[in-house]
UniProtKB/TrEMBL annotation:
Domain of life: Bacteria
Chemical reaction(s) catalysed: a quinone + NADH + 5 H(+)(in) = a quinol + NAD(+) + 4 H(+)(out)
Entry annotated with the keyword ATP-binding: no
Family of the protein in this entry: Belongs to the complex I 75 kDa subunit family.
GO MF, any single term: NADH dehydrogenase (ubiquinone) activity
SUPFAM superfamilies attached to this UniProt entry: 2Fe-2S ferredoxin-like (SSF54292), 4Fe-4S ferredoxins (SSF54862), Formate dehydrogenase/DMSO reductase, domains 1-3 (SSF53706)
Entry-linked Pfam families: Fer2_4 (PF13510), Fer4_Nqo3 (PF22117), Molybdop_Fe4S4 (PF04879), Molybdopterin (PF00384), NADH-G_4Fe-4S_3 (PF10588)
Record's protein name: NADH-quinone oxidoreductase subunit G
Gene that this sequence comes from: nuoG
Annotated Gene3D superfamilies: 3.10.20.740, 3.30.200.210, 3.40.50.740
Amino acid sequence: MADNQLTIYIDNVPVLVNANDNLLAGVLSNKFDLPYFCWHPAMGSVGACRQCAVTLFQDENDTRGRLAMACTTPVFDGMRISIKDLAASEFREQVIAAMMTNHPHDCPVCAEGGECHLQDMTVMTGHTKRQYSGEKRTFVNQDLGQFVGHEMNRCITCYRCVRFYHDYAGGQDFGVFGSKNQVYFGRHEDGQLESEFSGNLVEVCPTGVFTNKLFSEHYARKWDLQSAPSVCHLCSVGCNTSIGERYGSVRRVVNRYKHDINGYFLCDHGRYGIAHVNQQNRMTETKGIAASLPTGISRTDVLKSLAWMNGQSLIGIGSSRSSLEANALLKQLVGNEQFSAGFSNKAFELAKYHAHYFDANKSVNLHQIEQADCVFIVDEDISQTAPRMALSVRQALRNKGIKKAESMGIPQWQDSAVRTIAGEKKSPLFILSSQPSKLDQEAEQLLLGSHLMITEVLHQLIEQDVTAHHYCTFIKAFIHAWQHAKSPVFICGWQHQNIKAFTHTLACIEFLIALNANSRFVIVPPDANTLGQLTLLDGKTLTVQQAWHLAITNPDIAGVVVLENELNCLTEADRDALKHSGKKLLVIDHCHSELSHIADVVLPCAPISESHGHLVNYQGVIQHYFPALPTQRPVQENWQWLVLLAEAVTSSKSKWQGIKDFHQLHEQLATDIDNWSISTEELAKNIARETPRVSGRTAKSANQSVHEPKVTQSNDDGYRFSMEGGKASLDANMPYVWSPGWNSNQAISKYQRQVNDELIHKKDVKQVTIDYNPELFENSHQHTAERQLPIMLAWYCQQYQSQCIPEFQLLHQGNQLLVSNEWAQREHWQQGTWLELDIDFNVERKSIMAKVIIEPRFSGLHMALKLDEYCAGTAELNSASIASTSAIDKYLTAKEDQYQAALAEKQATLVRLKQKDQYIPIRLVAGGLDDA
């Protein structure tokens, strides 16, 4: 028996439990059924609901026992309890009965119906008949913004929502109000929930108080959804998700438990960002391909239309938002010397440094970050660029208080007591940045200023110059905390793309290791597959600008193939130059951009919800995602289009000609590429994507054909587009979570080794290695501090795809120029002054409007620009002048027009999707252009 395990007896059955757990966790870890509400495996116990009552006996001779709440009861060796004891069973049933006195009878119309924890627990306790016939308590609901619906009448006062939102995630605009039988959970007034984790209220709430607003508007029951395991593609963390679809359109994303990464929680970008696949700018038709039949294009049509490519040289530009195999295949197609990984000139320099430091300093996962006792963040606002990582940092800051409680004999799971004992005691957080963030209020030491200030502080830190005039307090406190920490974590990233600051930041790594051998590191790249792109770099890899220029100037180049990249680092003049050169532009993407509109050939590829592939997260972990629904012609997966291009470029005897499925693709890549990181797994389980209870299987397409269509065949991923197949629980990559008696997401405990631990069917972690040792040199050209203008983007503006989602557009607050007191005084600007700014962005010069926000924490002459539109890195300010009244009115009118347009688009999208429901796509074979 392990040292930390004890033997207890549950209804006279001996089981092993973790000595550090409470009784409820021990019971659930051994797969017994015991109702609960207020307890959560990631948030501990508060004993608010009294639902987990058991009978606790003194010893084997005690036949009477006493009632105890399992969630607040520590375990001890030889402990004897009963779940089935009549007194405990009746008590649990009475607790449910009391809750039901005010709970409405609205399960048939509740969005939580069929996956409701309250329903499960009510059935489990045996409370099958309503006994109360009196008047019920009612509340007025709130408008909580674009994402979360509110129905307070369903509340059972478990306190989970406020414990997650305020205590766990650090949200400040949500709380609990009232007392006795009139307790209210919400905001002080109607308004958008400000936390990046507001969507977790939907999964945390055991009833239907908080609902997914987007899902509710285009709704399907959980048992009717066809789901697939996936990976979030909107940042580099790589949270595991489950995508659900119905009638050919994606309905929602829910969290898929992954112990080392996202655990139980998902940020709002990952939860709601999938909406881009349902927007009007989805590519659904080809351009530049002549169809021979009215039914649509065929494989032969594509090869004929691309005959101009035969034997020609092409430039290939990949993307860090596309899959690892698609980028590798593109590189094979065009050759090493004509391949760009999709990095701009500036980003490529950052990529070189990241590659250089990666293998020697492996990044830690989010679970390890949560164990840290000191955190240092340099110039990366992870609350917006990697929100789930910021949530882990918040948990790390509690460790000092948890240790204090443990020293007093209070276990970590006693959440309320631990927080009371901890008070304001937190593990040290140090932030050195060019912009404010939501973590600033948690920092022990905070320095906000220009990139020149950041490089100066880092230099003095490495030199351990504690006499520095302005920064000595920061440096002294940091060195002391880092030296005495047992597991310190250093976090930096690509956010502002300032080469000098980035190189100085990475130079700190060796110093920090010398200061504390236990130092661990995280470098946050910008995209879901940036690390995957680093594995494809070599000495011949081109930047985007170099590749574009080569295509224009080299007469031997016939055209450019762009894979899922909008190329926002190119100017309009660059795009015009390619057009005038007579070279062809071929774009493979799933949503339209300025590039696709000028392309000669457009090939619509499947988004992440309809395709296979692998993404490599910030830690180098390779993760597989699967399609939730099959593509509809002429849409194909990106690698399928590239296989066709390879055939067109080479010959009819091409090695790519026989590749029909995903496994064959990987076999070919393993043959062509040394040390190919991915080996296709044996996926013979044929797991069903649909639940056994899915409705309307034979009727949902009856308005198109009276004949029952054949189930779409998919033979290359181990999952079936059907209700028939293996159980979802047979694999760690579960498409959905369900267990007998557990219809809600709480069923995950049945598939964990113990609650809040690894899955029983855990897969081995596969990580990439980067065999790229570039020549490093510091970019000597740096802009002056006064002209530097770091760009601040909210989480919903971090990715190009997110811009087209109307719910995200409705969150826009207008441009803001954050300035230091010194700047404001020098220029005589007041809080709220409107300015007209002349700015050089990465590729173009623009005049924009922005409101002045004075940031007193800024050091020296410093500014930062908060934008409502996607724009990476740092800009340069040419001039700033106070805007005229007419200019302000024009800007505000334009913003109002954009707001109304977003509202109209939101409604139009919903109408279009509901109309689409009437014509469910019938597909015989998943993928390809020629259905058999």
